[in-house]
Amino acid sequence: MRAAVLQETGQDKLEVLEDIEAAGFGPGKVRVRIRATGLCHSDLSAMSGVLPQPAPFVPGHEGAGEVLEVGEGVSNVKAGDRVLVCWLPACNNCPSCRRGQSHLCLAGFMNAGTPNFRRTTGGTDLFGFAGTGTFAEEVVLDASCATPIPDDVPFEIAALIGCGVTTGLGAAFNTAQVEPGSSVAVIGCGGVGVSSIQGARACGAAQIVAVDPVAARREAALRFGATEAVAPEGLADAKGRLTGDEGFDYVFEVVGKSATARAAYEATRRGGTLCVVGAGAMDDQVQFNMFELFFDEKRILPSLYGGGDVLRSYDRAIALWRAGRIDLEGLITHRVRLSEINEAIDQMRSGEALRTSITL
């Protein structure tokens, strides 16, 4: 079968190879035929080494498809079921799961260290990004990673719900808990940032300022519910005009850089909420002084995968989409085949694409 492979961390391009097989099928596992997958910026971060991931590996973690086969003991899905790929499944047994914080379960991260692909030529083992690897025609997953989806949800929509949409909506709903009538700024308006904007709008925010250096993304943010869109150098002016220079009630940092995290802190009002959504590097340090932390009483809330129960979050996203309260089709600005994956990567790096749907 075909899969897109990164041979070494730091390489810019993927190789689409045809001598790949999904490996590791057995008890507790499912084999899934991937029908659509989204390109998420986290895939690029894993390629560059910002996010840790053993190589060689198959990127991709936003996927949906059909179950081809289930292993012994699997009861949540059966062959023929339509599913989306959950890259951060809950084990329901660890301390985090028992505390009701299943999004902090480490079981899914442990999967990233076990190869689930193999080259038929030479027998080299390959890892799947985040324990999945959806830039492949088939993938073997833990059964908990396969979440059934209703028949009316297209594969390309389900794939986005599997990561970017859930992350962005959940940051507004679960982590920040945006209040009606509040003021919001979102720094970084790719697929996750735009989903945060849609979440803030659904929560009833009165003012939503989208901040991004790319004009096309600023224009897109307005279509998805932002009331104003500015380049980064315009954030201070927007803060002054809209909040009397007090700062926004909620600021979402969706870039994953210390510089934007600091800018987000400065844009947050005293007593307001800074929600950190972007996935950054382990060696990128952000600084706060002890007096400002005490005196400003700004809440700094990281949000991992939307900060809530992912299965409930999936259901909520589907319900809002069906009701026309959020636009998921519009997030997909480009559609490509797997053979065109490197073109899609260039489009994401340039900021041209919000989300690219890859058909396999």
Question: Overview of this structure, please?
Answer:
The chain is globular. The protein is built from twelve helices and 19 strands. Helix 6 (191-203) links the parallel strand 12 (183-187) and strand 13 (207-211). It is an alpha/beta fold and 360 residues long. It has helices spanning 41-48, 95-98, 107-111, 155-161, 164-176, 191-203, 215-223, 235-243, 258-267, 290-296, 310-322, 341-350, and strands at residues 3-5, 15-17, 20-22, 29-39, 57-58, 62-70, 82-85, 117-119, 125-128, 138-142, 146-148, 183-187, 207-211, 228-230, 248-253, 268-276, 299-302, 332-337, 355-359. 51% of the residues are buried. The longest helix is centred in the middle third of the chain and has 13 residues, at 164-176. The protein starts with a strand and ends with a strand. Helix content is 30%, strand content 26%. Helix 5 (164-176) packs across helix 6 (191-203) and helix 5 packs across helix 11 (310-322). The strands form four sheets. Strands 4, 6, 7, 10, 11, 18 and 19 form a seven-stranded mixed β-sheet that branches.
Low-confidence parts lasting 5 or more residues at pLDDT below 50? none
Number of strands: 19
Q: Report strand %.
A: 25-35%
Alpha-beta classification: alpha/beta
Mean pLDDT over the full residue set: 96
Give the N-terminus to C-terminus distance in angstroms.
11 Å
Total helices: the number is 12
Q: Fraction of residues in helices? A: 25-40%
Principal-axis shape equals: globular
- Main beta sheet, described? 7 strands, mixed
Question: What's the alpha carbon Rg, rounded to whole Å?
Answer: 20 Å
